[in-house]
Amino acid sequence: MLDIAQELRPWLDGGREFAVATVVGVSGSAPRGLGAAMAVDREGTVIGSVSGGCVEGAVYDLCRQAIEDGRSIVERFGYSDEDAFAVGLTCGGIIDILVTPVTADTPVRAVFRSALTGAVRDEPAALTQVVRGPAELLGKSLLVRPDGTYEGSHGDDHATLDRTAAARAHALLEAGRTGTVEISASAARWGSPRTESGRGSHCPGGLTLLVAVNTPPPRMIVFGAIDFAAALVRVGKFLGYHVTVCDARPVFATRARFPDADDIVVDWPHRYLQRTPTDARTVLCVLTHDAKFDVPLLQEALRMPVAYVGAMGSRRTHTDRERRLREAGLDEQELARLRSPIGLDLGARTPEGTALSIAAEIIAIRDGGTGVPLTDAQMPIHRDAGQPAVLRTVLGVA
Q1: How far is residue 230's CA from residue 242's CA, in Å, rounded to a whole number?
Q2: Which residue of 29, 44, 102, 154 has the fewest C-beta atoms within 10 A of its own C-beta?
Q3: β-bridge mates for residue 181, sequence order
């Protein structure tokens, strides 16, 4: 739902009643991922998409029905070999869709308003929704903030469940990742223990929550204000990164040369890296290929918990660079994190082609790709969330 915040918040501000359909489960090939949303108001207006057109017609009908009956439901859509004309995904995947009504008296309306307002302002937060469990909890939501506080509730007798859900959502918020979490039957118990059974109410099978995370864009820091850097800045922006260019030479690090960069910094690369914020999603691209810049910079970068460190240069440059880094005290495990020469082998020679090569490697490492042509690959095109960590070994990444 957070992906359509700009369009959806005015509906709430205007008092409009609607239903939101959200992708809460994906298996196999599917056009859109977890958290993708589509909304339908009482007049039939539609914003967003859950499948790129495959099942929108059926989901539209579910949303209209949810507005009328006021109940949240989960519906599964998948391709059927027995009936190729049935509603489903022609790509062969399976998606689960949660449909939640947001009418005048819906308890989640206030939580959704806060979540959408924060998303429009690009404030970090995590929105949880119950996607598997008792019917009375389906669609219930919490909005969890970076300091651990939360808004909303699963009900008057659900304080323990609220705290558990908020803690699990906060962990995903810190990781900057949308996903689902399971809450065990014991943690999902609620109410007073002084019932006839002495145990209170509980969910025998536990609960499943979708945690949709809104975080600021990940950072791409490009060191070296060269022509290849200008092309990489454009590709980085296209991929949704907040892109910074850093170079110690003021004559090269200018807005005229890098109009698409979010930030341009004139400083020694290693000194800037020591003082600027980074996290587990940050990618560092070292394009200086000059030992006086590279070695002190990589000494810092390879010891940071960032997503990617790549350095430009020939194989001869790489060999010399590794020697210098060993002499500077880096061990083999730290050196193994360095992607050098930077990028995948696309045969690229131009700045634009090289930028695509670097971006392709970043995406492959981030999402668990192999980097081989899909024509020759035997694994599914879209893999389940648990698979990428194994597939990263193909690229030699831990």
Answers
A1: 14
A2: 44
A3: 209
Q: How confident is the model at residue 83 (pLDDT cuts 50, 70, 90)?
A: very low
How does residue 41 score in pLDDT terms, banded at 50, 70 and 90?
very high
- Which of 241, 182, 240, 239 minimizes the C-alpha distance to 211? 182
Secondary structure (3-state) at 340:
coil
Backbone torsion region of residue 52, taken as left when φ is above 0, otherwise alpha when ψ lies between -120 and 50, otherwise beta: left
- Reference 40, options 25, 61, 70, 71; nearest CA is 61
Alpha carbons 323 and 309: distance in angstroms, whole number: 17
φ/ψ bin of 183: left (φ > 0), alpha (ψ from -120 to 50), beta (otherwise): beta
DSSP string, 92-110: S-EEEEEEEEE-TT-THHH
Positive or negative CA dihedral for 99, 102, 107, 112? positive
Buried b (16+ CB within 10 A) or exposed e, 275-291: eeebbebbbbbbbbbee
Answer whether 294's CB lies under 8 Å from 288's CB: yes
Contact 360, 344 (CB under 8 A): yes
The alpha carbon dihedral of 83, 89, 94, 99 has a sign of negative
In which element (H, E) is residue 126 found?
Answer: strand 125-132
Provide the whole-model pTM.
0.67
Distance of alpha carbon 163 from alpha carbon 169, whole angstroms: 10
